[in-house]
Amino acid sequence: MTKIIIPEEDIVLAICMYIAEEQNIAVDDVQVELFYDDYTGFSAEAITSSGKQELITKQIITALRKWIKENLHADPYAGLKLDLDRRNGIYARLRSDS
Hints:
single chain, about 100 residues, three-stranded antiparallel sheet
């Protein structure tokens, strides 16, 4: 069993793709910023021409699962977890049986 580390840049890309598909706009038209708070956990803010959208952890995970399935061709339900490294930012860990 191996662990795949998904860096913050790929998490942002996954959210951009998720929002773009949801709003039927280009991926380049979406800006995303990730946040972590000790009380509320992980969140994101997506900005498009139609305004701001706040995403909670559940929505971030949903976007990541779609991205993992389409881009890594891995099981998106195999132990996906968001984590924080105070120096390097937010990242995700995916347990893989391959």
